[in-house]
Inverse folding.
């Protein structure tokens, strides 16, 4: 390995990726297996079962898409949006905005319901935006602002529409109850609260969604009709579609196993406790909360910088002199806020202490 | 780790994935880094330089797509095919057939030039199929048949068309000279001759191709305009598009480094020598070559089974009793041929001996 590969021993407390659980690293160093090996298919099946638990669903089609969280977003729209379909999007940050872009490119009539950044999506406004939308799409946990939106009221009022939800930064860290909340299509990421490497998008779709799926979406790679023949098998076995990212799936299997062994509620309590200590510390150092009270993600703090405290140079010093990564703001919030997380394996009180001590030196 | 994760110690000699170089496993077990970490961006830049070497190109836009080889195929078409564009595809196996499907879904007028499976693509037939195609697409090394097609004559005669080539199973194993052969768009996979895990699609596009790229392709995830702002940076630095599969890229960086240290010609000589010994051994055991003479891939043997030798049960015995994976045939060749490779870290004479000894016991 070259020097540059060896040097980095980062503590990752930005909006993701975060430090991965040791079991993910161990698993990633195991010898390769084939994507049609019965032993691997057992691992895939068990991974999908574990994903059902963290998604709060019994959906048959639940599996990791072969791409990052954004590939999950792409798959969620490309398999359901036909030209002219009405897609209502609740926008309160970068990822709601991205949903509009993804849907528009597929020919959707996008009805954008904009909210002030830092505020949650208002279910009533979203539900009232169009009389008969085909899809209503919202982000559960906005990574760009640290805000949690309420999904259940949208599910309760969705009527004939499909409810499509981005769970990238919520899954594993706070409760996600896809079935109870009426979610039809959801995708997530592996590099946030699941504490694995980026590269997969956990995905789930309800039977109601499967009934309305396009027969031949414009993307061959993300065509769920074809992928299902591998993930679930058809009558005659598991058919090859594309070669699955085997190592990433094995690592996901391992971290989900570790999380369920720790207990999902215990994992979330750890995320909350570390996040609360972090926010206390940041406030003491002069940071001011950015996200709306009552809707702050417990594991992703967003805060205005103290007066006179420079964004870029201080993030660079944290990285270079302390090996700690935190995130800056995006869009209008760039230069004004930081995004600091306690997710996955990074959600340890010692890490919070280490970051606050370093910050104390910088301020 | 659960039992099922620990048990598998496979020798992978199918059409891919194959065993990965030890340095890939070591790298995959390193602590995570951020996708905007300057140290990681250095690794990405160096990875792209190394990919230029194995692609035989100086193309500025050369990088790994965040998905498997099939995502590379999707990216190659979705960024260039507008509805009504004429796409000539030379089809001589599964992956040429897949190209037609991918292009049709994007609204292309596909001109399909079918060849008998096991035969190479005929450059004259492909070049004569349409007077003014927008794109001519062929597969360099057909994984389904073990056949190598000649690319240079197509590049020499392509006229105003863009030449799009699938290099999934050729890259690293046999010479690929994108610039000399007139290739405009090419993609590859990591799990064949590069000897890394599946999950990335090395990609390259010529300046000529970049000039004709769509401004707003239907896929947001694979939009090369946006991805380039991260991979190459724009005037103001490297912009976030999606979170790169960091660990996979670091592993690719490491295997490419190891290959270039061994010497690309030495790697290919090793692939050839192991492949030749394998074919000798298979022939001695009663297998008969399937691919056309003069166009057989040196590192992926395809052969008809000996009389009375069952496909599925013998592959299962090899896997269960010897921990060795080989591949069966696809499409019309299913049940009739095997596909056996010497690729990546699997390309070792001891592995060839181990497989032939096991096969000797089965026949």
């Amino acid at each position: 390995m070259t020097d540059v590969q060896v040097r980095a021993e980062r503590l990752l407390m930005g909006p993701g990726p975060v430090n991965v659980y040791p079991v993910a690293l161990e698993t990633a160093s195991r010898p390769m297996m084939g994507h049609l090996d019965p032993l691997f298919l057992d691992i895939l099946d068990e991974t999908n079962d574990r994903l059902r638990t963290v998604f709060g669903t019994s959906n048959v089609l639940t599996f990791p898409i072969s791409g990052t969280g954004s590939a999950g977003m792409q798959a969620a729209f490309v398999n359901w949006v036909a030209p002219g379909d009405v897609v209502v999007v609740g926008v309160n940050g970068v990822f709601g905005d991205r949903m509009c872009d993804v849907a528009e490119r597929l020919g959707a009539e996008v009805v954008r319901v904009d909210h002030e950044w830092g505020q949650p999506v208002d279910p009533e406004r979203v539900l009232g935006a169009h009389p008969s939308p085909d899809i209503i799409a919202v982000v559960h946990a906005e990574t760009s602002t640290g805000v949690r939106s309420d999904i259940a009221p949208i599910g309760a009022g969705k009527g004939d529409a499909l409810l499509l939800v981005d769970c990238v930064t919520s899954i594993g860290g706070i409760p996600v109850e896809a079935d109870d909340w009426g979610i039809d299509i959801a995708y997530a990421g592996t590099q946030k609260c699941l504490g694995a490497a980026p590269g997969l998008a956990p995905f789930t779709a309800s039977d109601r969604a499967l009934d309305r799926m396009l027969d031949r979406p414009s993307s061959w790679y993300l065509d769920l009709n074809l992928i299902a023949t591998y993930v679930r098998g058809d009558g005659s076995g598991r058919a090859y579609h594309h070669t699955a990212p085997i190592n990433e799936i094995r690592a996901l299997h391992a971290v989900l196993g570790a999380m369920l062994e720790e207990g999902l509620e215990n994992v979330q309590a750890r995320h909350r406790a570390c996040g609360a200590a972090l926010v206390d510390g940041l406030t003491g150092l002069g940071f001011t909360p950015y996200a709306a009270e009552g809707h702050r993600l417990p594991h992703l703090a967003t805060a205005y910088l103290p007066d006179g405290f420079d964004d870029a140079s201080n993030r660079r010093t944290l990285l270079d002199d302390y090996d700690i990564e935190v995130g800056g703001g995006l869009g209008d919030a760039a230069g004004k806020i930081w995004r600091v997380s306690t997710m996955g394996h990074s959600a340890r009180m010692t890490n919070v202490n280490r970051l606050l001590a370093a910050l104390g030196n910088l301020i």
In short: The longest helix of chain A spans residues 264-284. Chain A touches chain B through 77 residues (CB under 8 Å). Chain A has two domains: 3-18+263-362, 22-260.
